[in-house]
Amino acid sequence: MTTNNPNTLPAREAAKALGLASSTLAKLRLNGNGPVYCKLGRRVVYRTEDLESWLETRVARDTSDADTRLPKTLTGQQPSSPRRRDSSQTGDHHE
């Protein structure tokens, strides 16, 4: 059974409408940085008004505006920082 509601889009069509890969939209959904969605059984659908509202939150006037308001990556993941090696692992024991 399919829902042919003209106000909703399946995830694949929503991604296409946003200009995103389906996998990117799935990552956004997973980490909570994407548009609001509806879960209908196993299906994920997006209301067109929710897609439009989410796009409004992504508007920036210039790059400095975007840098202060938006995540560095579309999915909001921060780059991992290199791990500092513990002195016990390097053999540099200072006593």
What would you say this structure looks like, in words?
There is one protein chain. The protein is α+β, with helices and mostly antiparallel strands and 95 residues long. The protein has a domain at 8-61. Helix content is 41%, strand content 12%. It has a 3-stranded antiparallel sheet. It is elongated. 12% of the residues are buried.
Provide keyphrases for this structure.
single chain; 95 residues; alpha+beta; 3-stranded antiparallel beta sheet; 5 helices; 3 strands; elongated
Task: Produce the secondary structure layout.
Blueprint: E1 8-10, H1 11-18, H2 22-31, E2 38-40, E3 43-47, H3 48-57, H4 63-69, H5 87-90
Antiparallel strand pairs: 1-3, 2-3
Helix pairs in contact: 1-2
Order of helices and strands: EHHEEHHH
How much helicity do the residues have?
40-55%
**Structural class computed from helices and strand pairing:** alpha+beta
| Average of the residue pLDDT scores | 80
What would the principal axes of the Cα set say about the shape?
Answer: elongated
Q: Distance between termini?
A: 72 Å
The major β-sheet equals: 3 strands, antiparallel
DSSP summary, beta strand count? 3
Share in β-strands: 5-15%
- Regarding quaternary structure, how should these chains be classified? single chain
